[in-house]
Amino acid sequence: MTTPLDGLQPHVRPHVASALQRAGLDSWIPEGPGKWSLPLQFLPDENGQGGWVELMRLEPGTKLTLHRHHGEVHGLNLQGQRRLDDGRIIGAGDYVFEPSGNVDSWEAVGEEVLILHVVVRGDVDYVAADGSVQRHITTADVKAGYRDFCASRGLRPRLAEAGA
Question: What local confidence, expressed as pLDDT, does residue 92 receive?
Fold first, then answer.
C-alpha cells in the first residue's frame, strides 16, 4: 500500500504531511496520469484575477502540455527536476517566474518524483499547437475540484480563500 509521502525526500515529507492535514486531505488529488495536486490556499480576486497556491507532484516522464497563463506564476522546485520547453533543467531549490501571457510546456525528468510549489494567478488555458484553447481552468474550477475530491472521500474541506 502506498502513502501520500512515498517517494518524498525526508526534508519534504513533514511539509507535505502538514499541508495534507491543513487541507483536510488523506491523499494527493489526482489530475491525470502521473500528476497530482495538493492545494495550499485559494487567493482572493485582485484586478479580475483570482488564483491558487499548491504543491504539484509529478512522476518522472510526466509532461504538462502546452498552456498559457492569464496571470503570473511563481514556481519553486522542492524535489526532483523538470525540463522546460527551452531545454533548461530546473532542479531542487530552483525558482522560475512566468509572466502573464507566458505559453510553455515542461516535463518532469530524472529518477525521482518532482514536487513543485507553485503560485498561480489568473486562469490557465491548455492550448493546441495552433493556439486554440483545448481546456480553460479558473480558480473556481480548482476550488470545485478540491471540494469534489473531499466529498468523494467523505472529507470536510478546510481551505478557504485567503483573507476570507
Answer: 96
CB neighbours of 94 closer than 8 A, spacing ≥ 6?
76, 77
Short-list 118, 114, 5, 116, CA closest to 60: 114
CB atoms within 10 A of CB 74: 14
| Residues 81 and 89 sit within 8 Å (Cβ to Cβ) | yes
pTM of the model: 0.93
CA 144 to chain CA mean position, Å: 15
Print the domain residue range for 74.
Answer: 13-152
* CB of 143 closer than 8 Å to CB of 26: no
* Other CB atoms within 10 A of residue 89 CB: 11
- The verdict on residue 78 lying in a domain is yes
Say whether 76 sits in a helix, a strand or coil.
strand
Determine how many CB atoms are found less than 10 A away from the CB of residue 2: 7
**Is residue 111, in this structure, part of any structural domain at all?**
yes
Position 47 scores a pLDDT of: 74
Is residue 162, in this structure, part of any structural domain at all? no
**What's the CATH number where 96 sits?**
2.60.120.10
Domains of the chain: total: 1
